[in-house]
Amino acid sequence: IHTTQLRFRSLSGILTVTREEDWLAMDFPAYHFIPSELPDHVSTAFEITPSAVFKGGSYETRYYLLYEDEQTIRNLQPNLTLLESAAPYGFAITAPGEQFDCVSRFFSPSAGIPEDPVTGSLHSSLVPYWSKRLNKLDIHAYQASARGGELRCTYYPALERVTIRGHAVLVLRGTLQLASRANS
C-alpha cells in the first residue's frame, strides 16, 4: 500500500505523518513547560549547573535543563546511574545552537533509554519554547546524540500544534500479516 499520509494513535492522540520531499513530517500537539527545580538527589547528575530548569511539557515526568551554549550540550556526560534513580523522570538538555536555532539531548535511563537518538515528542515542547525565545515560528533543531538528527520544525501558536520534519532511520524490517476476523 502506498499512501502520502499515515495516521496512528499515540499517547498524544492521533498523529499524522506526511512526506515532504525527502523529509517525513509529523504533526504534534504543542506543549509548554513551567519553571522548576531538579530533585536534590539528581541535581549532581549534571556536572554543570543549568541556567534554568523547567518541568512538564509533553510528559509531566520530564525535566528540561537550559544551558548557554551548544558545546556544553555536546560535551555533557550526565551520571546515568543517578538519573536512573529518578524514576520515572526523563531529562532533556538544550541550548542555543551555532548552526542550528537550538540543540538538545534526551536521557531517560529509568525507562531503559540511556540516551534517545532523536526524540520527536521532546521537540513538541522545545519548539514552542525556542519559538518564543527567538521570536520565530520555524525552528531548525539538532539533537546531538551519538547518532544525531536534524529537525526542521514549525510552531503554529493559534492551533497549538508543532510540525516536526526529519529523516527516518531504518532500525527494523519485517513482515506483518493481518488476518480478517472471518479467517481467525
Topology (elements, then pairings):
Layout: E1 5-10, E2 13-20, E3 23-29, E4 33-35, E5 52-56, E6 62-66, H1 70-75, H2 80-84, E7 90-96, E8 102-108, E9 113-116, H3 120-134, E10 138-143, E11 149-156, E12 161-166
Parallel strand pairs: 6-7, 8-10
Antiparallel strand pairs: 1-2, 2-3, 3-12, 4-5, 5-6, 7-8, 8-9, 10-11, 11-12
Provide keyphrases for this structure.
single chain, 184 residues, mainly beta, twelve-stranded mixed sheet, 3 helices
Helix content: 10-25%
Task: Assess the beta-strand content as a share of residues.
Answer: 35-45%
Largest sheet: 12 strands, mixed
Quaternary class: single chain
Total of DSSP H or I helical runs spanning 4+ residues? 3
Rounded to the nearest angstrom, the radius of gyration is: 18 Å
Question: What is the straight-line distance between the termini?
Answer: 22 Å
Q: Can you walk me through this structure?
A:
Helix content is 14%, strand content 39%. It has 184 residues and is mainly beta. Strands 1, 2, 3, 4, 5, 6, 7, 8, 9, 10, 11 and 12 form a twelve-stranded mixed beta sheet that branches. The two termini are 22 Å apart.
Question: How would you sum up this structure in a few lines?
Answer:
The chain is 14% helix and 39% strand. By secondary structure, it is mainly beta.
